[in-house]
Amino acid sequence: MVIRNGILSTVRARGRTVLFTILILLLTLSLSLGMGLWSYCAQTLASMDETYTSISVVEYMGEQYPEEYVADEAAREALTQLKDFSQVQGVELWETTNWEVALSEGYQRHGSTVPYEGQMIVAVFNLVSKETTQWGTLSAEDLPEEYILFNSQDNSTVTVKLADGMWKNIPYLERSVVEENPENLPGAYCVVDSTVTLVDRSRNLTKSLSLLVNERKFYSYNPETQEITGAYTVNSGYTGIIGETLYSYEGKSGVAIQIDPGDSGFVPEKGGRYLLHGELFDSGSSNRAMVVTDFYEDCEESPWVQIDTYDDPVFQEGIFAEYAKKYELGNNYIRVDTSDNIAALEPFQQGTLYLTEGRYPQAGEDGVCVVSHDIAEQLNLKVGDSIPLSMMQASEQDPFALEETGDSRSWTVVGIANLAETYEGRIWVSRGEELLQAPLFGYQLGRAVLDNDLAVEAVEQLETMVPDGVRVTLYDQGYSSAAQPLQAMESTAQGVTFASLVGVLAVLCLFAFLFVGRQQQAVDVMTSLGTPKNKIRLWLLSGATLVSGIAVLIGMIISAGSMQLLIGLALQAAEAFYAADQRYSNGALGVTKEAELVQQLPLWPTLVAGLVVFAAALVLCIVFVGQAQRKNTLRRGKARVKAPRSATSVAGKGALRFAWLSACRGGWRSVVVPVVALVLSAFLGFLMATAQGWEEQRRSLYENTTITGQFTSTNGRQYTDLTLANPWKLWNSGMVSSIQVSASLHYWLQEDMPEFANNEYGIARKEAWIGQQPSMIFLNGLQVSPEFIYGEVPEITWLEGWDEAFLADPSYHKSWTDIPMPCVASQRWMKEHGLDLGDEIVINCENINFDVTVEVVGSFAPAGAYDNLYLPLSYWCLPPWEADDERESYSPTGSFPGCCFTLRSAYDLEDFRAYLAQENYSQPGDLGGNRVTVVLNDYTFTQTVQALNRYITLGQILFPVLFALMGVLGFVVSWLMVNGRRMEFAIMRGLGASKSRVFGSFFLEQMGLCLVGCLVSGLALTLWSGQLMVWLAAVGFAACYLFGCAMAVLAVGRTKIFTLLTYAD
Amino acid sequence: MGVLQLKEVIYTYQTQYQKVEALKGITASFDAGKMYAIVGKSGSGKTTLLSLLAGLDLPTQGEVLCHDKATSQMKLEQYRREQVAVIYQNFRLFPLLTVAENVMYPMELRGTSPKEAREKAKALVERVGLPETVLNRYPTMLSGGEQQRVAIARALGMETQIMLADEPTGNLDTTNSDNIFSILQSLAHEDGYCVIIVTHDRALAEKAEAILELKDGKVVE
Question: Do A280 and A344 share a domain, yes or no?
Fold first, then answer.
């Protein structure tokens, strides 16, 4: 009975019951969805965190980047300058590059990764001197017995040596002249026809000289210089047969070989056998050719030795045997990489490598390894097998010049990687293994494994810590793009959850107060009838419990049913909100993983939310039961308000007078409205000023940001060869303001060039030597130089009247020789050659057959070991975008090592991406139809703009909502203010005041108070922000508030005076 | 012919649960220079009747006539402003206006300038037996009897011929009640007002020239 009565008395208050049922239902739903979304996002992010791996690769951008096995002292020096990266927040693991070399019996390396493929140590016999014909200057004594000698002045006569010491210039005669007029012919002449015929009629000698021509026995004689040039025969080495091979990668013997003595001084005796050390080279013919070379630079041991038999001890011991062994060892090396997170090593992280069997070693796990596919195949290894290795020590300069250390180890294979050509002969072990500290080869200094969520910030921090020339590249597998919407959703869900909790508490407090706490009368009745306390409690709780229980249950059912749909919609909205175009961006290098979203939605948030709301309702009702039982309605009294003394006013008239007096004397009421107006309009104004700041920031960002880009290799990390057509195509987009191109030629000073033999090998050596010389770099901006591209352009000291603009001057293309070529040089190089600014020096450069004079017009202190000279691009080419007239433009054959460009405006970024996509340019890691990869350096810009766009969009959504809320708030505050003064309303109306006067009395009072607050906030914000538009917030707030206020006054005014007076009583 | 007349006045209103017929055909007439008392038990309809007389609402049926003109034919605001003055049981004074300003308010409604109204207010306050010192005080600083005098002064300031009072002594002690009643009596007898009071107090009602007793919305004969 008690429960029934309790429930009935509750549900019969229909309006209240329905209202609170709906409120509790909505709050349960909201809390449940908030928690569900939060849980879903947290679960998905946790799952993504396990799936994605973010790493940053730290590399030195040296001259030979990205050569992997080069010994670059600058890179080693840079490695020593790296600070302790492991202290950077977000860096979970920092490892410097560490690998060693080992050998395993039975493993043989093949293909392009064999290091000593060209080295040879072979025994040769049957050596025959090889003569070749060369063209050059020679003396008369070197001329053969029979020859023709053309006068190189006009080629009208031919000088013929008729006999020893007997020379004669004889004319050319046409065949027709000879045939028509044989009797008038000179004693000796040449007939020019298909053959040249030397005729000496007096001696009755007629000889066809075609043979001589064929034998290249014709010479050019210059009467002015008296120089004879022509073909002559020289010794160009030897041919022989390989009798025995001590070392050769291909291991062939019994085959013919050409031998170039090189600089070794090798001159074989006739019939001798020799053991030679050298290397294969391309002689241009089909025959195998080798050049005899020293074992190493400045080695005193001769690279050749005469032998009698193949049993000679030199095959077993000595330097030849030693080097043969070294080459054998080096060729079959196995590289042992150590890492505490092998799965996060770049090739694994980027998907080039993956495990086909087994697992990765864990951090610190001893005695286990992952092996490359070829090792597993050759050694027939399976997961669980052991691989024994002999650890080797590499030399400082050659990673494959190995020495045995006597350290033998054995690892158990726990994983086998896939087949990948450039990763043959590799094993990966945990850093827990103590290996020798091998010298650094190549340019990868180290690698950091990053916390996915902090990766971007960590890389930014790392970038500030690296020395010049070192580049830090982030590979996050697309985590930041994929996680951003989920992170935003998670934050929103957290906000919704906490707001719902607060709402739940507030509504349930009110619920408990109204449904339980305010039931004193019923309690009084029950108490007076002698109802036991526990029954009174039951009576009070039964109805409230039923209402809250039903509301919670319905909320839970709706939540469970709609969760999937709502999460899907939220995810779509968040993805749309956070969608950033990262095509061609330097923020999206490397592979991108597809995020795998969690499919199974958890049910527990619904259950927990329901339980929380229901439990809170129950607890609060119990709290208010105590209150209802404690209160005695008979003891309640009335508070008396004290008012201060005041003089009677006669100021003003009508409604305004009443409003003024009421506002002045309203006490706390007259303070609340201006304060509320002040705070809220200031809040709105602050938001508007901030939003305006965002707009300004975005505009300023667009106007002040220079977006650059470059053509790169497919990994997005290095420059690549280009033809001029590639950047030209970009220029045609109309969205590029400048394109910087660099091209280079090696140069040297004539006196610095050593002598090279005039044969194939000599030419090859000369080319190799030239290849090692510094470069003349032709460019139209210093930043594009490989020397400066990854660092800052140093400060240039200019000769008076010169600046960097000369590099882009298109007028230099007309001549290399008319005036000295202006250039920028390093101060070290200038000092070495005794040069000052304005001095000239003559140099030679590749592909140019004349001396070049350069004038130094600018100098800088070099950071690296480069002695490059920087010259205007127009010496090399005149790109169409820099030529005054397109017909003037010209480009050389060959390629450019680098090109970077600048967008005309950051506003063009999106259109430019679309243009690149339309033209099928490739992105790093994603080849398009156009196999030229472009990278835009827009990551920071795009991220900032995206963030600002989100704020602005939020603002655009938020401001109307806020203004509407201000209107509602104005209504509520005004309602509270006016409704509390119904008595005054009634008195006025009772005394016959017109509706307009009553309206005016209250409205003007509220308006005055509101405007005071708005005025103060407007003034304060104007002083703070300096923006007049903050007044919009004050005016907007005032308009909304006053609209609400007018509605409230009208609403109260609509009530009958009779009712008002009754209510007041 | 009375200054105020009720002709078959019926008044009904709708509550949340039911329709209530508060007055069921009341007919009465009230003359100037006389004091009338309307009595009856709680719920008999006396306050409703006074409200209709005060022009706070119109009857559902029948008519309230003032100087032979039906209130339904008038602008009620103007009627309240110019024809009737009402004194309520709970004084109904503006809490944030001083005594003088409260008294001045209806005068200002009628277009009197504040300065002139202030002078009149001063005289009216003296007339109802209050010292000049109360003029600048707020109503809440006065006793109940003083507040009721201020309410009477404000009613006098309206310069009407009809004075309605709803339980004017209901919240007052005996002395104050007598004083207030004397004032109202003198207004009727000396100043020619038609004074109609609603009261529970039978003894007080007995002092009036005529008594109108209501029961269940009807006049008890």
Answer: no
